[in-house]
Amino acid sequence: MNVRPTLDGFIRFVRGVMGVPDTAIADSDPTLECCYQSALELIPKGMGLESLPIIYTNTVYNAGGSLLLRYAIDTAPGTYFSDLRKRLGMNDAVYGLVNSAADQGTSGSMTVSDALSNLTLADLMMMQDPYGRAVIAVLMEMGSLWGYTP
After folding, report:
1. Contact 32, 84 (CB under 8 A)
2. CA dist., res. 55 & res. 106, Å (int)
3. What local confidence, expressed as pLDDT, does residue 91 receive?
4. pTM across the whole model
5. Interstrand relation of 100-102 and 107-109 (parallel, antiparallel or unpaired)
6. Terminal Cα-to-Cα distance of the chain (whole angstroms)
C-alpha cells in the first residue's frame, strides 16, 4: 500500500473527518491548498515518520486541519469557522499550562510533564483543537529529535 498525502486526500479529510461542509469553504478555495502545503512543511521529513505512511499522512492532514480551523476566513453571510473557533476556545490566549493554584483556604496542583512544559506558543495554539492535539501527540512520540522532550 502506497499511502502518501495529497491535496485531494486532504480535501476528503476536511469533508469526511472534519465534517466541514462545502458551503463553508469551496474545494477550489486557495486556503485549503495553503493549509495543506503548510502542513507538509511543518511535519518533519527524514526522521522516520514518513516510513509509517498512514501515520505520516494522517499527521499531515491533522496539521492542515488545525491550520484550516485557525486561519480560514468565513464567506459572508456564513460564520462556520468563526463559530467553531469560538466553540473550541481558539480565540482565547494561552500562554502555558497551569500546574498549581491556591488561595487562602484551598490549593491544588497537578504534575505537568517536562514534555508539556517545553511546548512553544505554536504548540499551545495547536493544542486548542482536536486535530492539532493529534499532531502534537504523534510528534511527541518522536522524542527529542523533534524537540518535545528534554
Report:
1. no
2. 44
3. 83
4. 0.83
5. antiparallel
6. 35
